[in-house]
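Section handout 9: paired folding examples.
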Amino acid sequence: MKPFSRKDWVAGLSVAGLMLPEAVAYAGIAGLAPQRALLAAFAGCLAYAVFGRSRFAIVSPTSSSAVILAATLASLPDGDAQRAWAATVVVLLVGVAFAAAGALKLGALASFISRPVLRGFAFGLAVTIILGQAPALAGVTVASRELGPLVLGLAASVPHWNPWSLGLGLASLLAILLLRRFPALPAPLVVLAAGMALSRALDLPAHGVAMVGAIRLEPSWPSFPALSSGDYSRLVQFTPPLVLILLAESWGTIRALALRRGDVVEANQEMRALGAANLASGLVQGMPVGAGFSAGAASEAAGAVSRAAGVVAALGLAALVLTAGPLAADLPRPVLASVVIAALTHALDPSPLARLWKLERDQYVALGATVGVLVLGVLNGMLAAVVLSLVALLRRLATPTVAELGQLAGGHDYVALARHPDARGPPGVAIWRPAAPLFFANAERVFVLIADQVRGQGFKAVVVSLEESHDLDSTALDALIEFDAEMRKDGVQLRLARAHDQVRDLLDASGARDLAARCDYSVDDAVRAALASAPTAQGSAQGPEGSR
């Protein structure tokens, strides 16, 4: 890590001003004491500075992980001691999972949550969190955290809304949004300070406005309450979704910031760093931590030049809590709720989702992720969205398009006849190209489709281009051999173009050496070989592509 520079000091102190209100807010989302989030941010930043590689990443509690942690704790019996211990166990499990995945070089897992899933999930999550803050904004209590009962309970409590709480919360939200026009000002910190000043000046508790209470940065010895084996089993079940969302959010942030600046980062190293950060957070009884985009973007905007900025942010956060923590006893909860809502307004931007509808790609996956979070809850919604994404992928692979190819005049290029009317197919030879890799779910369907188009058309040879299939599973291999036998029975020779070495080796190993000998490295070579081996095709009846 490079020595601390002036820019790192400026960036770190700027980020610390953002981390304090966000950490307190995220602890509230998870239903935990504020110091747990603050200790997590302190430990996470320091651990990442040692093991991580991104100069912009700020590893601290995130909104999405806080919501999933809240869902985890809600599945356990009531009791502060049980919830506190369960949260510590979850954080340690997350740390172990990240460290193990990094050691096993499973960084490719970051790609298993697609961007449409993340966009839809983020939109639904933002709506869920904002509605979850609405009771604090209105100064009422709603027992249920589930979206439907929460909305109904909030509507039923309208006559009891506290006008002081609501007015203060809305004014704070408007102030944060207006202060964003001045990037040099830490808007959340300014609004929190103003809220504490107003609390004392107007005696807001006397008007029924709830307060946050004093914040202390004091780790305590863990207690070990009695949890059943079923409770621990539920904690283990909630760990993979938490790891996945932290991985997707953190790697997306780290990679995006690195690409913008030309930095080099590596997924497996970042997973090990996240593992160390979460283990450190668990040891101080913190919360799950990851590289959130808002803090990382703030660090980049402030000009951080090394990971020292994260260390300064951690030290600055500790200094803020030690000096201003007791003053938080005068911090109104509606003001804190407005900080959370303001932090999530960027996630309500519908343009990324609208772009998917314009492209007509993955829009239903993103919509499913959004609806899943809103209807099924955060955990089940995310799992449903990931499953939906995989189903969409399998559907595309299982129903590929098969293009009929022809040759452009005066060249060796073969292109789809449907898109290039000026292309012509060679006489007596049909050329087909599956648009997806052949595997067990689509191989038989592809070869049936080609056979239906070739049969009875007077072709002497058919060329199948396997450029998309770097390898074949046993089902696709059997389907290919059976297709070859069927074509020979009809008097049609099969040749394979652009066949990869793995496919050739597999054909040899399966005993289909004759078919392996009819493999070529280009479509042009395959067509020439087909014409040379079937000279009568020149004068035979031609198929549809021969007449084009």
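Moving on to protein 2 of 2.
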Amino acid sequence: MSMRPVGLPEIPEQTVVVARAAFPKGSLPIRVRDRLAEVFVDEPFTEAFGVRGAPGLSPGALSLVTVLQFAEGLTDRQAAAMAVRAIDWKYALGAELTDTGFDASVLCRFQARLADNGLERVVFDRLLEHCKEAGLVAAGGKQRTDSTHVISAVRDLNRLELAGESVRAALEALAVAAPAWLAGPINVTEFAERYGPRVDGWRMPPSQAKRDRLARVFGQDALALCRAAWADDTPAWIREIEAVGLLRQVLVQTYIVRIDARGRQVIKKRDADDGVPPGQLRLTSPYDSDARWAAKGDDLFWMGYKIHLTETCTTLPDADADADAGTEVMPNLITDVHTTDATVPDVKATAPIQRKLAEHGVKPGEHYLDSGYPSANLITKAMEQGIRMVTPVLLDHSAQAKAAEGFDKNAFAINWKTRQVRCPAGRTSSHWNPVKQHGKDAIVITFSVLTCRDCPLQKQCTTSRTGRRTLTLRPEELHENLARARAEQKTSTWKNKYALRAGVEGTINQALDITGIRRARYRGLPKVRLQHAFSASALNVIRLDAHWTTGPLNRPRTSRLERLSYQLSA
């Protein structure tokens, strides 16, 4: 398929007349076409298309269809139908009234092409650039970030179901790609009876002994299939089939092969004593290799991904002051969308988000986040880059601080020049040891046993077996920044300021209600990122449309009683 950059076509005169008559006040697609036509052009997509072959549909037009699709929460089939029967969609696409549109599969192939070529953020970035040029978004303002969970598009599997379904997925792939080869190493009739229907926990034996026996059967079949695929006389391309590679990975993660006392090879399902891989490496489905299990608190446990949304949060001025000054209230627009697998903690997303904001020229002056995002290193680095992180930092984790009894770190006086620490009893430390902990610089301060043994405050200070107190500190600059942040967040001024962060919860709720952002439409991280980028673009389009049509977004609702009061006073 080839592409010749043409962009959105001119709107036919008849389409303009009918659309204006049908929508005298306009509609979202009409206003998007009139105000944002330069966002949906073909040139940014050229690297995803060839120069030879049959010409394909305009990627600019298809990207506009996708944005409108997410703005109205439609499936691919529904979006393709709207491009045929909706007059305002025809206006937006510059189509004739008699245009028959395109097949729904075109959207699926277009989105796959974008994900395969790393172009999932093109429309979002171009829309953000347009808003920046229009003065709706700028660097140095206030922005806020929060995350939410995303459920994968594949069904949940327990470890036994995963073992059996992985064998089934590999057999299905090989039955299509290499049927002649598959008939050699396995008994097709036996395997077809065992793996014909999907592996489902509802149809498994009820007793634990029978389930353990079935787990061994799944393991033996997986091992036999992998050995056949990796045999010396097997074509190399067999091993390159994705389902076969995933089967091998599931086999290693789920089973362990041992030699028993009689010298026989035994395959056994892994348990806690044998060791299991960490969550970020553990496969959860043979149909989505990027989905992961994760937990948040005691109530939320899901398989899938995580999305972080960042938006501007302009403070709303007083109504009287706004009327006097004649200033325009800017809409809150999404400036970054960051998608990861479910196991990545929020603190790992802070630096990438701030880096992306800086690259697009919308670096915030104040960045509002919850307590999962900051660390001493991140706060310090952000300050060096001109970003002040307004976020509650984690408190002291020492046993004394948690119990609110005894002496926590704040009770000790630190002299960074002499490299000594003075305790509440007035005694000084004996050792100052710079170390590396989890790849980060730290300082371990130790008091002598002789110093602490006769101290009258020993029981309030430490419960260690050695009877001496030990402190772990960050380097001076990080320690001071952390202490300053902990002290500041206890003030009422900071609490009132931090209340601005709560508004991002409404953005996540809007994304959930309109675009269904908490449920993945596609399989694989690249396509889920594409879904989220278009979801964020759709939300920005909706907010821009509200800004264009209703004026300031902080206009309060008027009750019927207030309307009556205004009428009587007039």
